[in-house]
Amino acid sequence: AASSPSSSSAIVVASSSSKSKSKAALAFVKRRTRSEREFDEEYMKKYGDEDSHIPVMLGEVMDVFDSSSSSFRLRSFVDCTLGAAGHSCAIIQAHPELQTYIGLDVDPVAHEEAQSRINNMLNSTPACSSTNLKAHMLLKNFKEIKQAIGQVDEKLLLSGVDGILMDLGMSSMQVDDPRRGFSMLNNGPLDMRMDPKGSLKAEDILNSWPPTEVGKILQEYGEESNWYSLQNKIVKARLGGGFHTTGDLVDLIRGSTSRVKGGRQGWIKTAARVFQALRIAVNDELKTLENSLYNCFDCLSPGGRLAVISFHSLEDRIVKQTFLNIINNIPRKDDTIIEEGGFGAEPKEFNYYPGEKEVWIKQVVKGSSGVILTKRPITATPKEEKLNSRCRSAKLRVIQKM
Ligand SMILES: C[S@@+](CC[C@H](N)C(=O)[O-])C[C@H]1O[C@@H](n2cnc3c(N)ncnc32)[C@H](O)[C@@H]1O
Predict the structure, then answer these.
(1) For residue 313, is it within any domain?
(2) How far is the CA of 96 from the centre of ligand 1 (A)?
(3) Which residue stretches, if any, does this entry annotate as coiled coil (predicted)?
(4) How far is the centre of ligand 1, averaged over its atoms, from the C-alpha of 355 (Å)?
């Protein structure tokens, strides 16, 4: 993590000695903007708790949708990743002009938790109950955002929504529950499905996928350099009964990596990469993300904003590249994915005026259909990183529709 509190762009030049070293150094091109916001611990605690989930970069997200510092108005908002509804509750409370709120989550546990939190807040906050706000919490994958908006209000699908948030990855509720199989530290079934109705579990991949496919996900989704050796060990372990718990997998990784580079704890990093690879494959996360970014942008009103928080480099690369494709009208790779239904508002003439007080906007990238408001992603303040280790890898990128 960079220590500078201000904007940073550091290119680490390769040492001349070894080829692999220089390759690694060239890959280490850090480009980001450290948030300059005053971190408000009380505010974070108001909307999050350690038993469920602490919202990441809450103040920064609030700035993106802040109506007081720009001509931006938030009359409709979709939270694609409800989780424990920390971001959602803060947005709803801060925006009395909000008329339609839609929250989505594919996980029934998160959906139920978020629904009860939002309903409790609406009932107990006089300012919220006196407004005309209609709140809809739906158990849905965010790739179906168009159906979700259409289900709530068909007209909204045509006019577009003013704000959309995606806070990717898992909530603490999911990681901390051993029954979900996401954590390498708590023994549990090898599940890893965000949507319990999904047909594929991590154990299916480990026990029955072709060896080359197992190797491919370890390499591509885990960026694991030792992927070939692990692939072979996984396939060999099938002869001894295969994998049934996260502990079985951890034991194999621990046994395979204790003597390789990375020190005595090297296996933990390998395990984190293997778990990440399996989770991405089980939930088809990268393909879903790319298509959903297009779908979300289609659903924005002219001037509407989409904010995305990602937690690892594979996700961030997709957000960065897809935003560039979107503003330059480059269609998605698989155009057949486009769903039936509305495609957002017809593009109108829209002049982009960053609000005078929008100090978080540093450098923008303009295209014919949108503006990327974060040429470099925004990362959390050092103070927030200290309090919530999860936000150390968080990157916030924002796009605005023309
Ligand atoms: C990091 S948490 C969100 C936390 C939330 N912002 C808060 O403040 O509490 C991510 C949530 O997204 C959900 N999720 C992940 N992929 C999804 C998808 N494709 N569609 C809908 N929800 C998804 C997960 O189930 C999880 O509850």
Answers:
(1) yes
(2) 24
(3) none
(4) 30
